[in-house]
Amino acid sequence: MYNQDMAKHVIHISDAEAASDFASLLDRVREGAEVVIEHDARPVAVVRPAEPQVRLLSESLRLAREHGSTATLDGDFARDLEEVINSHREPLNPPAWD
In this structure, are 15 and 43 located in the same domain? Predict the structure, then answer.
C-alpha cells in the first residue's frame, strides 16, 4: 500500500525527460518512487503509486471496531459472501493498451 514512507524517494525530472522515456518513469513509480514532473523548474505533475482500491473484509471489520461500531454480522454472512465471490470468478483479461 502506498504511504508517505514510500514517497521518501522523490525524483524531479523535466517534462521532456518524462515524455522521452515514460516507461522507465513508470518502472520507478512501481518501485515506490514519487516523480515530480517539472517544466522550467516548476512542478506540473506528480506521479506516485496508486492507492489500492480493494479493502479486505478483515480491514473493514478492524476499522469498524476502532470506530466503536456495534454492528454485528448474522450467522449466514460468511456463507453468503463466499457464494457471491464464487459466482463472480472470471479470468482477468485486461485490455491491451496501445
Answer: yes
- C-alpha 61/C-alpha 43 separation (Å) is 39
- Separation between Cα atoms, residue 50 and residue 73, nearest integer Å: 31
d(CA 25, CA 18): 7
What radius of gyration, in Å, describes the C-alpha atoms of the chain? 20
78 occurs within a structural domain: yes
Q: What is the model's pLDDT at position 8?
A: 63
In terms of residue numbers, what domain contains 43?
6-47
Q: Residue 40, by phi and psi: left (phi above 0), alpha (psi -120 to 50) or beta?
A: left
pLDDT tens for each residue of 36-62: 999 999 999 999 988 766 777 788 888
Angle at 45 between CA 17 and CA 55, to 5 degrees: 120
* Residue given cell 522507465 in the structure block: 24
